[in-house]
Amino acid sequence: MKFSKKDLIKLYTNLVRTRAFDELFTRRLGQGKLLGFYHSSLGGEAPGVGGCSFLRKDDVIFPHHRGHGIPHMIGKGIDIKYFLAEHTGKVTGGCGGMSTFHCFDSDNGLYGYSGLIGSSFPLSAGYGLAAKRNGREQVVVCFFGDGGSNRGTLHEAFLMASTWKLPITWVCENNGLSQFVPFEQSYPVNDIADLAQGYGMPGIVVDGQDVIAVAEAVTAAVDRARKGKGPSLIECKTSRFCPHFVSAPDMCGCEIRSDEEIEELKKQDPIVICHKKLMARKILTKKTIEKIDAEVAAELEAAEKFADESPPPEPSIFDDLLYAN
Questions:
Q1: Do 166 and 224 form a contact (C-beta atoms < 8 A)?
Q2: Which domains does the chain have, with CATH numbers?
Q3: How far from each other are the two terminal CA atoms of the chain, in whole angstroms?
Q4: Distance of alpha carbon 216 from its chain centroid, rounded?
Q5: Whole-prediction pTM
Q6: What is the crossing angle of helices 286-309 and 80-87, to 10°?
Q7: Which tens digits make up the pLDDT trace of 79-114?
Q8: How far apart are CA 99 and CA 76, in angstroms?
């Protein structure tokens, strides 16, 4: 499909915003200002951004742990300052219970997600059934990694969604690593999209580094689902320029990934790819880029201020249970 100039600038802007917030979360973790741990989305921002930037406000999304869902939430229009604040251990009240793996913003179709790999599949099927029954042409978009595709819950949900023609778009973000395990060592075929044939639904492979290609594929699948034609599976071949989580060794199998390998991957940086395409079409200008960069810097500054100045949570009777020996 063809996107307008405004649409394409939106995709580029959301990529830049996602990368900036990802770098902010990583920096704050190193400064001791972020609780727990963080799974950076560096290099793999395009599937979440492209898959969510043109959804309806009431469409339901299920992000996953890569970037802690930031690419998907930014694409969907969710204010990340609340997410940052709760990663900082603060009470926000803004999006109703955001935390590292439990995010809730019902106004934007986000009803939570989990660090339990594969848990999103049956939940997406359930919301897909609700969407079909309510008659409002809502669509559910479920994102998962190549590691998640090995869970039995995927097959159960695929079968139900296809049999009942539920309005679901399944989006696999395949970075080829499944935490540490090389894809070719854990999968007998080249493409996860091949699973679709067994469930009678379309399955396509797209360049997961090209946010425009992702947006085109997901938009087409969402339109199909909205018309009552059932689910689709989209596999985005993407990359990860960083370890599985910040400060971990950057492993592939039993070996550390080399600097040369990472530099080769960075030649397919999704921001650079989008930038080059839009510059070639004279959609981006120096003035536009400077405006975007300034707005993103201001957004980050405001988000960090909000996170630092939000109040800590009140003591709870459950604290003793959580930290008891």
A1: no
A2: 5-323 (3.40.50.970)
A3: 58
A4: 16
A5: 0.93
A6: 40
A7: 999 889 988 988 655 443 334 334 678 888 888 777
A8: 18
